[in-house]
Every structure is written in C-alpha cells, then in structure tokens.
Amino acid sequence: MKKITLALGSGGTKGFAHIGVIQQLEEMGYTPSAIAGTSAGGIVGALYAAGYSSDEICDFASSLNYSKLFSRKQNDAPSLLGLGGLYDLLEKYLGKMTFKDAKLSFAVTTVDQNTGSEYVINSGKIIDAVKATTAVPGIFPPFKFGDKYLVDGGILNPIPVSIARWMKSDFPVLAVSLSAPPEKWSSLPKYSVPSFVPVPQFVVDQLSQLRLGKAAESFIDALELMVNEIAWLRLKEEKPDVLINPAIYSYSMIDDIDVNEAIELGKTAVREKADEIAHAYTLSKRVGRWIRASNPPAKYLDLSNPTATG
C-alpha cells in the first residue's frame, strides 16, 4: 500500500463523500498516513484515525438519526441549531479517546471567534476537537474551552492542505474539496430548513416566512458562498499534489443527503483522478515535496490544558 496524506474539507452533510474517497483510495492501493480535517472532514478523519475502517464509518453515517441530529443540549450557547444527536453518537465511537490513542497522525483546525485566531488541535480528547471544528458560527453552538469560544475552522481554512503538508510532507497531499468550483457558484442551491430538524413542519413553514427565517436563509447562503471563495483561494495558494472535488456541491451544508449517493460521488471523484494520483509519486514530484516549506501553519491548542497554546 502506498502512503498518502489527506486534507479533508468542510461541507456539513456533504462530508459523507469523504467516506467514499477513502474507500476508493484503499481499493486502489493507497492508505492514509496522516489526516488533517476541517468540520465534516474532521468527523470522518477522527473516526478513521481512531481505527475504524471505512466500512465501519459508513455504518456510523447510516446510523445517524436525523430526527435527533440537530437537537440542542441544555447548556448550548445561542445558535440556530444544535448537534446533540451527532455528539451522542460520537461518544459511543470515540468516548475518552485522545490523540495519543490514534492509529495515525491526525489534526483538526478551529478558530477562536473572539480573536479570529486559527488553531491546530492535535492533542487532548478527540471528541472535543471534533466539537470545536464542527461549530459552524451562528448555526451550531461554539465549543467553550477556557476563555476561548471555538468555531468551525472552515471559516478560515476550509481544506487544511497546509496542516496536512506540515504533518507528513514526504507523501503526496490529496485535498478533498466539497466546495463548488467557481464556474458553479451562480447555480448554487439556496438554503431551506431541512425536513429532519426537530421541529414540526408547520413551524418550519411559518418560520421560513418570517423576517428571522429569511435572515437565516440569507446568512447561510452567504456563509456557503464565503467558504467556497476562501476554499478556492487557499487551494490556489497551497497547491495540493492532487485535488479531489466530488460533484456534491449541488447540495447545501445541512441538506438531507443520501449517504450511499454521497459515498459513490466520492469514489467517482477519486477514480477520475487515478492518473494524477499515480503521477504524484514520480521523482520530480517527490523532489518538489522535499524542497517545499512545511512550517507549522497556525497556533497550537492543547485540549488537555486550557492554558496551553503555542
């Protein structure tokens, strides 16, 4: 098996495509040596780094209860939705596992909404790191850690190529973007409250007609466009060895997506880049990786110590 380094991008429920990407890479003889994840990429990366197979991660995705997925916890900070159902299931899979227990190198990115600082998390409890990297501002509650309110790293680093390269620069960095390419931005889907939120449908219908509902729709649409813009700017600058872009961008970040469809789109995207992936192991590409700088891309945050940053 040839080693690769993965940068798994943000995308909400579109993140199921990451499972298909990993499955197809394994079928083609590649195995991740390190994973950097943001948001949805952080969830899939955490499960894989914890030792779960791609098939077991598929079972995880299929077992999500969408009627409870966006439930709120008693102490959640103000937000449009919660992620109580997701966190309850992750507790069963990750429990008290720390980064030291991981089977391969793993890290996520998050942002302190008070200061705007980006942090790399690769120590402490894995589930806490996942909570930090999935807290989409305004939609899901931030993760409080010490004096910090941590939110989705995707607002600054939607596809953590720089982190992946810093972790394992000697192997090809494959970036998985769930963001729409620029030529598709004009036809992106508009946000609507998904059918599986834990609210009666008549309430959803009424909310969507109120000013608050319209404001939420505008905010989420703008957020998705912003993430797309940042993602493609950073990809242009950081230049992964291979860019994999599953054609799942016709969905918004909290759409009710068929898991099997998303997985197949991930597989298809990898098969389409088979030649590029193979070429990433040529001598010229290896030399390029040796001379490319791979300095630490952000500050560190140790989730086992609320006062430790670097």
Would you give an account of this structure?
By secondary structure, this protein is an alpha/beta fold. Helix content is 40%, strand content 14%. The chain is globular. It has helices spanning 16-27, 40-49, 54-62, 84-94, 126-133, 161-167, 201-209, 211-238, 259-272, 274-279, 283-291; strands spanning 2-8, 30-37, 105-112, 118-121, 143-145, 148-152, 173-176, 242-244, 299-300. Strands 1, 2, 3, 4, 5, 6, 7, 8 and 9 form a nine-stranded mixed sheet that branches. Strand 1, helix 1 (16-27) and strand 2 (30-37) form a beta-alpha-beta unit. Helix 1 (16-27) packs across helix 9 and helix 2 (40-49) runs antiparallel to helix 5. The chain has eleven helices and nine strands.
Helix/strand structural class: alpha/beta
Which regions are unreliable across 5 or more consecutive residues at pLDDT < 50?
Answer: 194-207
**Mean pLDDT across residues:** 85
Query: Would you report the number of β strands?
Result: 9
Helices and strands, with pairings:
Elements: E1 2-8, H1 16-27, E2 30-37, H2 40-49, H3 54-62, H4 84-94, E3 105-112, E4 118-121, H5 126-133, E5 143-145, E6 148-152, H6 161-167, E7 173-176, H7 201-209, H8 211-238, E8 242-244, H9 259-272, H10 274-279, H11 283-291, E9 299-300
Parallel strand pairs: 1-2, 1-7, 2-3, 4-9, 7-8
Antiparallel strand pairs: 3-4, 3-6, 5-6
